[in-house]
Amino acid sequence: MSLGPIGIEGNDVYTISYKDLCAIVHNCPAEPYASDDDELVKEWIKAHQSVLDEAKRRFSVIVPMGFDMVLRPKDASSSPEQTVREWLKDEHDRLIALIEKVRGKDEYGVQIFYDPEIMRLATSKSEELQKIRGEMASKPPGVAYMYKQKLENMAKAEAERLVDGYFRDFYEKIRCHCDDMVLEKNKKTGSGKVMLLNLSCLVSQDEVNALGEELEKINAMEGFSVRFTGPWPPYSFVSESKKEEGSKT
After folding, report:
1. pLDDT of 187-196, one tens digit each?
2. What is the pLDDT of residue 188?
3. Residue 54 sits in the same domain as residue 174
4. What is the DSSP string of 70-111?
5. Domain residues for 145?
6. Within 13 A of 170's CA, how many CA atoms are on the CB side?
7. Do both 122 and 98 map to the same domain?
8. Which of 30, 108, 117, 154 has its CA 20 to 30 A from that of 163?
9. Residues 6+ apart with CB under 8 A from 204
């Protein structure tokens, strides 16, 4: 089947089949795409994404490969079509399992942020910390300094306890609406807020609204905000074969 000239640099995109699978490909040089031109690379990646969007529209379920996946022929006599069919044959059972895993589901990104001031205010209400502040006020300077160090350590530990509690609570509330989740590394925000949770979520189409409603509740909490993005191809939930140089992508 031809999908038209929608590939990188206007290449024709088409399918190569093996049994009940097909790979969506276009002709390319036998080497990975590479450039120092950031804008050009962005255009390549946009083209890659547009092919995935069109494939999803036509076939309803796809196993997305990352940009720049190229298959290497086993020998010089293998045609590009043979190379792709042999790969589909070797990966058949794994790919069928992945198709069933992501059928009717999409990937969504969930990031939750908090204002450190909210944690500081919550910590200041701790009865134990208030007790130490009261004792510190009546101590001589040398002893008061020791109390101050103790107070700072306890405040830090209390703040960490509160953050951990929110993390666990939000994680469980989100997990109830997901078929699978990947906990990603937190990122610096540069906005004064701190990222509490960074998740990639595999969500069934009939659970998306419920997940959105749960996130709206969290977003309405004082000092917290939520970023909810998607739907995306389920990159985080499919294991790609090792990228190799070759003649097809």
Report:
1. 888 778 999 9
2. 86
3. no
4. -BPPSSTT--HHHHHHHHHHHTHHHHHHHHHHHTTEEEEEEE
5. 105-234
6. 27
7. no
8. 108
9. 104, 105, 179
